[in-house]
Amino acid sequence: MDNTRLKRRLFCSIALAGCPMMAQGRVPAPLVKTDIRLLVGFPPGGATDMVARLYAEQWRALGHASVVVENKPGAGGRLAVEALSISPPDGSTLLLTPASMLTIAPHTYPRSTRYNALRDLAPVSPLCAFPFALAVPAAHPARSLDELRLWALAQGVVPFASPAAGSMPHLLGLKLASAWGASLEHVSYRGSAPVLQDLQARNLSSAVLVLGDVLSAHLAGSVRILAHTAPDRIARLPDISTFAELGLPALTAQEWFGLFLPSDSSPEIVSFFHKGVANAQMAAPVVNGLTRLDYRPFLLSPDAFASRVAAEYKEWGRIVQKMELSLE
After folding, report:
1. Helix (H, G, I), strand (E, B) or coil at 65
2. Residue 31, burial from CB neighbour count under 10 angstroms (0-12, 13-18, 19+)
3. Cα–Cα dist 135/223, whole Å
4. CATH number of the structural domain 131-251
5. Could you state, in chain order, the average pLDDT of each consecutive group of 10 residues for the chain (328 residues)?
6. What does the alpha-carbon distance between residue 186 and residue 209 come to, in Å, rounded to a whole number?
7. What's the CATH class of domain 3-129+255-323?
8. Where in the chain is the domain with CATH 3.40.190.10?
9. pTM for this structure?
């Protein structure tokens, strides 16, 4: 059997696996011999990695295929995007990435970004959307956003961390500094997990992170969320205000994780993977996993997703130019 037919059998199995007969084991598992690599641009343990493994486990359960999450951290998540852009378009390699790597990083790293976000990838679908949170160590003297503002102004220069330079958390921190008239010095990490570790160890005074990454630590009392970027309050954090409620509507923001293939992938492969995403999002393990992280399942057609990526790319280009921000 040639590779194209093999792939089609695989993706058909994923699409069909949501039916009751497959769930009851009445349809024999197809013979799948090709591993699928799911590239992630950040280390294990962070938000991107957790969502990738959640979907990968569900795809393995549905399609009886080997879906292997491959972490390729570096360059703020751009190394994984670059790796996908030069991968064969045979369906053997996927990318799960936050929007920032495609909509922001090309503008903040124009010389060192070695891919074209609008031409070198084939959008499949977003997987979920999520807000961000500003957090401090539990022992920090500031117990509110305004107290943190006053503390920062009194300190002079205050570091704040984000999971990657040129990411949306980085730019949100810069927006906050501008709104406060404070000197917040950005500290870039390689993913959310090490940021959270240093925040809990009191090696950092503040950080902007994906809310799902810091939620458990906040509920456990090792860090304190002071505000979040969602448009409305979150059910699991009823006492935590949005930035808009605190007079900073410009910091209302949500990002998505998206699934991509190499640009020359056939429409059939893109379509089958899209069906795989749709089926996975109806499965209880994925629904429950995203709920625990306070992520919202998010599905668009490949064409609609491509249009959204292009629109956000253009909008963030305008914002970066207005901020006169260059990280090179």
Report:
1. coil
2. exposed
3. 7
4. 3.40.190.10
5. 45 42 35 74 88 93 78 92 96 94 94 95 97 97 96 92 90 93 91 92 95 93 97 93 96 96 95 92 94 90 98 93 84
6. 13
7. alpha beta
8. 131-251
9. 0.78
